[in-house]
Design brief:
Layout lengths: L2 H18 L9 E5 L1 E10 L18 E9 L12 E5 L16
Parallel strand pairs: 1-4
Antiparallel strand pairs: 2-3
Length: about 100
């Protein structure tokens, strides 16, 4: 009977030491400034199993998908430690307006 409390004690000590140690290191995150160089807008048809480029000009409004791709010079900086870099736009994006073009216009 004395074995059980002793084993439980060692198990408790083991659990406490493993829960309080951390193998992750706190890396300082590096912010790399970049600028926005362009915007690309794509229309996609989401009617099938996967979105695809529309073959015809007509896309049902229920399956219409708009892809907005922001281009920047983020990949042109010299190579550093890639895992810790966070790219941050210098000027930022203040506002994005999307206008709906209807057939009445």
């Amino acid at each position: 009977m004395k074995k059980h409390p002793l084993l439980l004690f060692f198990l408790l000590i083991f659990l406490i030491t493993t829960s309080t140690t951390c193998e992750n290191y706190d890396y300082e995150e590096t912010y790399v400034p970049c600028t926005l160089t362009g915007v690309e807008v794509y229309s996609w048809d989401n009617a099938g199993a996967e979105p695809q480029v529309p073959i015809e000009q007509k896309i049902k409004k229920e399956t219409y998908l708009l892809k907005i791709r922001l281009l920047s010079n983020a990949g042109t900086q010299p190579k550093q430690d890639i895992t810790n870099n966070t790219y941050k736009l210098k000027d930022g994006i203040v506002k994005i307006n999307i206008y709906k073009r209807t057939s009445e216009q």
